[in-house]
Amino acid sequence: MLTDPIADMLTRIRNANKAMQDSARMPTSRIKEEIARVLKDEGYIKDFSVVEVEGQPYSTLVVELKFGKNRQRVISGLKRVSRPGRRVYARKDRLPRVLGGLGTAILSTSTGLVTGRQAAERGIGGEVIAFVW
User: What pLDDT sits at residue 121?
Assistant: First the structure.
């Protein structure tokens, strides 16, 4: 059975966050790196890096999680919206809002991965990849 690599990435981040680990590791791809870039730009994670592991045919994406005072989680939820079995698209005039604007929607557009706020500023729509809050 084929699994969704983006859902796998979000699940690894969700599990590491719940277990209060400092980082999450996963096989890398361009879209996973772009999702990590958006999460970093929005302040949900500390940093991310691509590590070449000797003896493995693929690179590893290491996502360093961020915690607030008293080890309080910065990411309280991650949800995959558009799946391979059911794609979800948003037009420029009907962009999704997460928790009334407190969360972030990640969209895949013709100009790359952007947040819902950036898509509204640019006046573009696209596929809704995930919600983060």
Answer: 96
Residue 101: the pLDDT is 85
* Ranges of residues in the chain whose predicted pLDDT is under 50: 1
Q: In this structure, what CATH number is given to the domain that contains residue 60?
A: 3.30.1370.30
Structural domain of 45: 5-71
Domain of residue 123, CATH code: 3.30.1490.10
Q: Which of 27, 46, 71 is the last residue of a domain?
A: 71
pLDDT tens sequence across 92-121: 999 999 998 899 999 999 999 999 999 999
**How much is the pTM?**
0.92
Same domain, 65 and 84: no
Per-residue H/E/C for the chain: CCCCHHHHHHHHHHHHHHCCCCEEEEECCHHHHHHHHHHHHCCCEEEEEEEECCCCCCEEEEEEECECHHHCECCCCEEECCCCCCCCEECCCCCCCCHHHCCEEEEEECCEEEEHHHHHHHCCCEEEEEEEC
